Amino acid sequence: MIVAGFGFREAAGMDSLRAALELACEGRQPDLFATAAGKEKSVGLLALAVELGFAIRVVSVDQLRAQVTVTQSEASETAYGTGSVAEAAALAAAGPGARLIGARIISHDRMATCALAEGRPR
After folding, report:
1. I need a surface site. Which of 1, 4, 99, 121 has the fewest CB within 10 A?
2. Using CA atoms in the order 90, 92, 95, 96, what is the torsion angle rounded to 10 degrees?
3. What CATH number should be reported for the domain holding residue 52?
4. Which residues lie below 8 Å from residue 52, measured CB to CB, with a gap of 6+?
5. How many structural domains is the chain composed of?
6. Is the entire prediction scored with pTM above 0.90?
7. What is the residue range of 62's domain?
8. What is the distance between the alpha carbons of residues 82 and 68, in angstroms, rounded to a whole number?
9. Dist CA 45 CA 33 (whole Å)
10. E strands along the chain, which residues?
């Protein structure tokens, strides 16, 4: 299973999230979206999930902090205790032993990030 993990600014809209997703996917088809607890009610994320038919897995801050990320963003570290919300959310949602398919990708407007992880969710 492939999980698309998202990190984004509060003002990020569906277009920013879609752009990050498209850049991260490079032709791959994710099975599930994931993001940090508190971000799951974002209008942009909900709209994208509904439009594309994806469920959203909510990842707790503790689960985010337990993941080893490739990217080290100071803003993500300060807010969530992880180097990348997108990478950590994808890894946590993809289950034990998951692996990143690639480091997070940033949308052109720098409002959203997306990373893909492959694994077997519980």
Report:
1. 99
2. 130
3. 3.30.420.180
4. none
5. 1
6. yes
7. 2-118
8. 8
9. 9
10. 2-8, 32-36, 56-59, 99-100, 105-106, 112-118
Alpha carbon of 70 to those of 37, 49, 82, 90: distances in Å? 21, 26, 10, 12
Q: Return phi, psi of residue 79, to 5°.
A: -80, -35
Indicate the angle between helix axes 43-52 and 14-25, nearest 10 degrees: 50
The pair of three-digit structure tokens given for residue 48, joined into one six-digit string: 């994208």
For residue 65, what are its two tokens? 């902090």
Per-block mean pLDDT, blocks of 10 residues, the chain (122 long):
96 97 94 95 96 96 95 91 96 95 95 96 68
- 108-80-35 Cα angle (round to 5): 60
Mean pLDDT score of the chain: 95
Give residue-wise pLDDT tens across range 49-66: 999 999 999 999 999 999
| C-alpha distances in Å from residue 55, one per residue of 30, 58, 79 | 11, 10, 24
